[in-house]
Design goal:
Two copies of one chain form a homodimer.
Chain A lengths: L6 H21 L6 H8 L3 H7 L3 H21 L7 H15 L3 H9 L11 H19 L8 H19 L6 H16 L6
Helix pairs in contact in A: 1-2, 4-5, 4-7, 5-9, 7-8, 8-9
The structure holds a DNA duplex.
Amino acid sequence: MLKQTQKRSIETRAKLLRVATEAIAANGHGALRVEEVVKNAGVAKGTFFAHFKDKDALMELIIGAQIDEYLDAAEEPGCAKNVDELVSRMRPLMDFMTRERYIFDVIVRHSGAAVKEELGPIAQTFERTIEIVAGWIAAGDFRKDVSEVLLAEGVQAFAVQAMALHFCAINNQEEMHLRFKSYLDAWLNPALAS
Amino acid sequence: MLKQTQKRSIETRAKLLRVATEAIAANGHGALRVEEVVKNAGVAKGTFFAHFKDKDALMELIIGAQIDEYLDAAEEPGCAKNVDELVSRMRPLMDFMTRERYIFDVIVRHSGAAVKEELGPIAQTFERTIEIVAGWIAAGDFRKDVSEVLLAEGVQAFAVQAMALHFCAINNQEEMHLRFKSYLDAWLNPALAS
DNA sequence: TACAATAATTGACCGTGGTCATAATTATTA
DNA sequence: TAATAATTATGACCACGGTCAATTATTGTA
């Protein structure tokens, strides 16, 4: 029996990922070109697609890893106990997601699972976000008449909404977070919202 | 002074739109090819892009018109007085939006305005949806502690969320609408949700 | 009607993501 | 070590959206 994947392959894949990550760090996500990646990695174009289904699959990996870093940071300081804390805890992640239109599009495109038990990297971060936020909601000063998971899903829906509206020229960064807060006040503490 | 746009141009544009609409009716939105449109319209490729900024701009027009038809139908029977009615009133529109992944992607991409006072066709339908839903909420049996516009925006956020999750193979059409209803129960009638 | 000015159209050309038959490399077996 | 099988890499090629300098059609003016 052959080894399923040989060392050479693992190295090639790692090199592609490294080169792509560097290019993104230098020029942003939207400017990434497959041809540039393979040239700098010293492999043929076809090799790229032997390792990643398409360009989006690579972006998913990289963006998914970046989101995970932001979630680590958001989780770090313990529970967010109220709406204000929740908003500010989510802020760096939302700023990242809206840094480039291209990033947001990729994220939205991959926020749902493709097949059961086959969550892509970005869909995984969405599940993780639900878990984290649901944990905060369960422990904090929030309404208790609805399950914390449903509430967490709502938080995510409002985050996406606020980010989508952010891409109007009229709406700036600050406005995005204010809008997010208005939603959450009404969603997470309906009794106080009046 | 010259006429700004000549009759010839208007006819060409109309022909392109007609041909594209027919092709979509036959093969779906995602299968539309610019080359096919210009061939069937009997014009050169460049002509297409003289009339539409890009392929997306054409899709925006066509999908925007389709959404408007669904909104007409949703508005027709008067106000939706409770969550169940609201869900079933939105149902045909949401089914259309999720008929093809491609359609949903185009819609999400264009749901926000590009520039103030420059709402694209799809962004306009989103504004119209807010107005319609806000009207229902103001007149119907819904919470009154938050403005109806904020509530309507939330309804839209939940609709998008439910549709995005729909594109998992695990979730079917029915589940999408059930999920939508759960969100709205908690959003529009927090007192009853317990 | 001739001429100038503007609008509309053309199609060769390009950028870029993605494919696939073939070649090269690596591992297994005899 | 030679023969064989499986894995990996190659790069010419294609599909398709989009560009633009050049050409043609239309309209206003002398």
